Amino acid sequence: MILLFYLNYFMIFLIFSLIFMLISLYMLSFKMSIYVEMGLLKFNGNSMTSLFFFDFKSIMFVSVVFMISSMIIIYSMKYMEGDLYSIKFLFLLTLFVFSMLLFILGQNLLTILLGWDGLGLISYCLVIYFNSWSSYNSGMITILTNRLGDVGLILSISLYSIYGGWNYLFLGDNNYSYFIYLVLLGALTKSAQVPFSSWLPRAMAAPTPISALVHSSTLVTAGIYLLMRMEEMIKFDKNLCLGILILSMLTMFYSGVVGVYEMDMKKIIALSTLSQLGLMLMGLIMLSDNYMYFHMIMHAMFKSLLFMCSGVILHFMGGNQDIRNLGGLNFMFFNTLMFFNCSNLSLCGFPFLSGFFSKDLILELTIMMNNNYWLVMIFYISIMLTVIYSFRLIYYSVVNFMKFLPMFLFGDDMALNLPMYVMYFYSIVGGWGMSNLFLIEGNLVYLKFTIKILLLLLILVSFYISMGLNKYFFEVMKDAKLVNFIYSMWMINKFSSYLNFSSLWLGGGMVEKIENGWMEIISLKFMMFFLVGVMSVSKMKLSIIMNLLLMILFFYFIIF
Question: What sections of the sequence does the record tag as coiled-coil (predicted)?
Answer without folding.
Answer: none
